[in-house]
TrEMBL record:
GO-annotated molecular function: metal ion binding; oxidoreductase activity
InterPro entries (UniProt xref): Oxoglu/Fe-dep_dioxygenase_dom, WelO5-like
Domain Fe2OG dioxygenase: 124-248
Gene3D superfamilies named among the record's database cross-references: q2cbj1_9rhob like domain (2.60.120.620)
Family membership: Belongs to the iron/ascorbate-dependent oxidoreductase family.
Keywords associated with the record: Iron, Metal-binding, Oxidoreductase
The organism of origin for this protein: Aquirhabdus parva
Keyword Zinc: no
Keyword flag Repeat: no
UniProt superkingdom: Bacteria
Record protein name field: 2OG-Fe(II) oxygenase
């Protein structure tokens, strides 16, 4: 189940280790981002000219590109080339307030004994802080996330666990629940479950989710994305979140974050 914290000052490295070690699905920090910051950012981000669609076949829109979207070495080069520009774009969208992604970066650096830093792939810094808009009716189907699928094999050997963080800006009144299954398939098992699908799993082939949670605007959820998880479609409005991944390389190593 999720550990619920009422303020970010309660978070410590033991909470993060509990997720890493499978003792909890994740951490839910209520009111991580003040509501006035959320309302300000919505006014800026929802009209931002940098919004782009993930692809022509889906209504999924985002600001900033995710490492998971890289399809070629040309894509990879461009991702890293604009990484810092995109970090500053998200930061500037929150001015005069602090960006929640920057607050997350500081928080991880403070609570983790050896700190936290931007992930580098082939010596190049990654982007962190992608803003995702899940429009009404869109089903973010069951799936898992693994950095190993998106990085060169020689640059991933030290990663032990992967966590995922979402900071919510808008949640629909109906739908938008985060669902999690107590299933962490190996890559071979996942590919077998996926079959011929290009992305994700058929919900009908899975048992009912082990838990579900509905965050509110301003909340933060940190979870283990290697467990199968999904987001129910909304029926009335867009679902908006800032997203990041966090890499765990051992208790004596810094955390690393990216999007």
């Amino acid at each position: 189940m999720f550990q619920s914290l009422s303020s970010l000052s309660e978070l410590n490295h033991e909470h993060i280790l509990n997720v890493v070690n499978g003792q909890s699905f994740g951490i839910h920090i209520k009111n991580f981002c003040p509501i006035e910051t959320v309302e300000h950012a919505k006014d800026v981000l929802y009209q931002h000219q940098s919004q782009t669609m993930l692809d022509a076949s889906t209504p999924y829109v985002r600001i900033g590109k995710g490492l998971i979207e890289i399809k070629s070495e040309t894509d990879r080069a461009h991702y890293h080339e604009v990484a810092l520009d995109n970090i500053r774009l998200i930061r500037n969208s929150f001015k005069p307030y602090a960006s929640p992604i920057d607050q997350l970066r500081l928080l991880l650096d403070e609570v983790w004994p050896t700190g936290a830093k931007l992930l580098q792939v082939n010596g190049k810094k990654c982007f962190v802080g992608i803003c995702r808009f899940q429009r009404a009716g869109m089903d973010l189907i069951p799936h898992t996330d693994k950095l190993e699928r998106n990085t060169p094999s020689h640059d991933q050997s030290e990663l032990l666990k992967q966590l995922s963080v979402n900071i919510y800006l808008e949640i629909p009144e109906h739908g938008g629940e985060l669902e999690m299954w107590d299933i962490e398939p190996s890559e071979e098992e996942y590919q077998k479950l996926q079959g011929d699908r290009k992305y994700g799993l058929d919900r009908e082939t899975l048992p009912p989710p082990a838990t579900s949670i509905k965050p509110q605007p301003g909340d933060l959820i940190l979870l283990n994305p290697r467990l199968i998880h999904a987001v129910r479609p909304s029926s009335d409005s867009v679902r908006v979140a800032l997203s990041a991944f966090v890499g765990y390389f051992g208790e004596n190593q810094p955390l690393a974050y990216w999007s």
